[in-house]
Structure to design on (458 residues):
């Protein structure tokens, strides 16, 4: 490794919950001090308790705390933090935040503002990847001017098509159109939704891939032209475009497909001289053809499954790259199978409605190959202001079948009382024969039926 060009001594984590605590742990193992920022609703969170220092940055609402760039920068300056790790969500993919960190001589642990802007614009990202030789879904050349222009293109491509917000994410500003007469209304709905959510109503149109799998490649770049990939993650189990379970490797990816997808992801990352950890997301059709969807310029919620099969700490790699260390291009050895279940404070028997409240009992599972990433504990009050995920349960075993069995055992041991959780959903999913055989796609949960049962203790 080259000499560090920008040593880091204290890292402020501009986030909350389990990801903040997960970053704090790695920082402390590296001998770095940490600063937690928190809203008044999070004063009792474990990330606040275990950081070296903690600074309150505002009231509960994210817009008044975790999204307040001025308060986060002030907290960094007051505590002497020389780097900021954004985690995921909130400001993690905010190019202005990255640029403001630069202006204040604070190292942003992630890519440059230019890269974030480029990859954050879906149409520009698609054009960049296409020029780099990465397969893309056929569609419009950037944003379409209006519904009429989009309809003309869709009629020529053939239906179904997907209308997507250029600045979208999390399933917002997306509509599938199955016939020509529905295009205008669906386009306008997507555009209005995007305008309300992102302040940008621009949309583009692309061919809708039927029966697709959502498979993503984890990459790491050093900003010096070197990029590694760490294999793939299967992310097709999702509800309303929100992932619920992820695994690595994917049950449909063989060595040849892994090689081709990895090479494509590396091409894409090199095309933008990427620095840090990123995920290149692909759609894979039933013929094994894959198409670029987007690049997430941050650490992902599901990164632990990659860490388990690649035996690495991706957050440590992020920090070392931010310090100026280069990486040596080499093959990453992948071993075993890992599965992650997102444990959300939701009632799966009532359309996954949120279930905030006080956790009365919290007994996490343990044993060989079992990992729990969480910031909660018995007596913790789950606030209603943020994402409902309260824990990630990750297991690793030699094979997928053994990993499924280990996860079922771990879920049986996971006792959370006082609120509803998605544990019963995961238990039923993992016992489903189609899931066990790997026979599913991104629409699997549209027909998956939960068996009604008492969810008083979950």
């Amino acid at each position: 490794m080259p000499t560090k060009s920008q040593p880091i001594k204290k890292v402020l984590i501009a986030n909350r919950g389990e990801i903040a605590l997960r970053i704090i742990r790695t920082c402390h193992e590296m001998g770095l001090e940490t600063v937690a920022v928190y809203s008044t609703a999070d004063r009792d969170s474990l990330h606040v308790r275990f950081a070296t220092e903690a600074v309150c940055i505002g009231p509960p609402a994210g817009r008044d705390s975790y999204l307040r760039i001025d308060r986060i920068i002030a907290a960094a300056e007051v505590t002497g933090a020389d780097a900021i790790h954004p985690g995921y969500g909130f400001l993690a993919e905010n190019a202005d935040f990255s640029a403001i960190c630069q202006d204040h001589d604070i190292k942003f642990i992630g890519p440059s503002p230019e890269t974030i802007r480029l990859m954050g614009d879906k149409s520009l990202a698609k054009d960049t990847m296409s020029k780099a030789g990465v397969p893309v879904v056929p569609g419009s050349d950037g944003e379409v001017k209006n519904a009429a222009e989009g309809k003309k293109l869709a009629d020529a491509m053939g239906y179904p098509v997907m209308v997507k917000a250029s600045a979208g994410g999390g399933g917002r500003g997306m509509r599938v159109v199955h016939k020509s007469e529905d295009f205008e209304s669906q386009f306008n709905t997507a555009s209005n939704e995007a305008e309300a959510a992102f302040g940008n109503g621009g949309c583009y149109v692309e061919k809708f891939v039927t029966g697709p799998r959502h498979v993503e490649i984890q990459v790491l770049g050093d900003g010096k032209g070197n990029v590694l990939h760490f294999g793939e993650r299967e992310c097709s189990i999702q509800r309303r475009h929100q992932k619920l379970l992820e695994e690595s490797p994917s049950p449909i990816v063989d060595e040849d497909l892994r090689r081709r997808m990895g090479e494509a992801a590396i091409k894409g990352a090199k095309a933008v001289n990427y620095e840090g950890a990123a995920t290149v997301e692909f759609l894979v059709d039933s013929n094994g053809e894959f198409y670029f969807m987007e690049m997430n310029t941050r650490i992902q919620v599901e990164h632990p499954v990659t860490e388990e099969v690649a035996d690495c700490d991706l957050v440590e790699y992020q920090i070392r790259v931010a310090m100026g260390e280069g990486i040596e291009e080499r093959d990453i050895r992948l071993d075993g199978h890992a599965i992650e279940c997102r444990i959300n404070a939701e009632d799966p028997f009532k359309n996954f409605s949120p279930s905030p409240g006080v956790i009365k009992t919290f007994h996490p599972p343990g044993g060989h190959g079992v990992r729990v990433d969480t910031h909660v504990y018995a007596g913790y009050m789950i606030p209603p202001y943020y994402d409902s995920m309260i824990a990630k349960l990750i297991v690793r075993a030699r094979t997928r079948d053994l990993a499924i069995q280990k996860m079922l055992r771990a879920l049986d041991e996971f006792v959370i009382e006082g609120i509803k959780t998605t544990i019963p959903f995961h238990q039923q999913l993992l016992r489903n024969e189609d899931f066990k055989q790997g026979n599913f796609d991104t629409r699997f949960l549209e027909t998956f039926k939960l068996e009604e049962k008492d969810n008083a203790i979950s």
